[in-house]
Amino acid sequence: MIFTKKLISLALLSVATSKQYFLENFDDGFKRWTVSSEKEDYGNWEVSHGKFFADEKDSLGLKTTEDYRFYSISTKLDKTLDTAKNPLVLQFSVKHEQSIDCGGGYVKLLPPDFDPTKFNGDSAYAIMFGPDICGGNSRTHTILNYKNENKLIKKDIKAETDQLTHLYTFVLNPDKTFKVLIDNKEVRGGKILDEFDLLPPKFIKDPKAKKPTDWIDEELIDDPNSTKPEGYDDIPETIVDPDSTKPEDWDDEEDGEWEQPRIPNPDYAGPWKPAQIKNPDYKGPWIHPDIDNPDYKEDNTIGNYEIGYIGFDLWQVKSGSIFDDILITDSEAEAKEHAEKVVLPKIALELKAKEKFDEAEIKRAEAEEAASKLDEPESEVIDEEIAEDEIIDDDGHDEL
């Protein structure tokens, strides 16, 4: 099954009303991309389909190639996208073929006046989205910039950590709602004001309000008619264990006078406490009243960005991640169709290719192990022959 550019174009043209801002499948390499010159030792990129893949050409993607490196590369969109007027749908695939242990797999959306030659970790961006994995932590970074501060979504979204390709989709609408999809399935969504700490709270506790001194918030009180039973305090906490016996080998002169061990007294109920009754003066819990937060101001510009570039700004301990099928559009329907007709079928074929690759690797390892064992008997025979040889001294006589 071949996933050519023609098929991609046909799939996308079927959504007639959508606007496409960027499409990249790396079939022609990455000539349109600019590697940052901010560092001299950025990691190198290459175009590769990896060790297992659906199709030799259509599985080509942008791959990191050097361990323990920063990576920084970006390119300009075909046209600027204004999220105040149009939905943003960002979609791309990531394949951590190297069993990534610590490294990023996310993209950054950048402003139109961005300088790709100076791209680095401190460059201001509008949105950062995609998987980030390190040790046992894996998250799908979903970050919005607001007033020059990068605001991470409040609750983490898990990222996929296996060696297969996965598709990540982020949707931001002009009505301030968003969605995150992984492999074309929604995993988070809602209002950005609910899921991101972008504004101070609308209400705060009234700093002038204090609980009245006569406020009764004790729901239960001691029963004044409750009295301690006679002899209650005479009940000991422990008693001598009636089943204990002096050991036969106990010697009073050597071991001292034997004493019976003590055990908890089953009749002991702890320190006496009067019974509790409902407090007739109970007013309920005191609730600190709220007031309008003077620092809160509605902001209709939240989530409004002009996006002109897309880039990868990553650190990877173990390289080998492959990025592909990058799409930026204003249509969820277009992204969904692209996923269903182009990306997901490749992922399904890649899974079968991975199974064949793993089988071949197992056979290769078994063959290497078998070959190494074949060498062992020869060395043993040689050793035995040497052991059986007569050892001759310097005079030519047997030493044995």
UniProtKB/TrEMBL annotation:
Belongs to the calreticulin family. Gene3D superfamilies: 2.60.120.200, Calreticulin/calnexin, P domain. It is found in: Endoplasmic reticulum lumen. Residues 1-18 form the signal peptide. The keyword Transcription regulation does not apply. It comes from Clydaea vesicula. An alpha-D-glucoside binds at Y106, K108, Y125, D132, D313. This is Calreticulin. Its main location: endoplasmic reticulum. GO terms for biological process: ERAD pathway; protein folding. Disulfide bonds join C102-C134. Residues 215-271, 365-400 are annotated as: Disordered. It comes from the Eukaryota. The keyword Ribosomal protein does not apply.
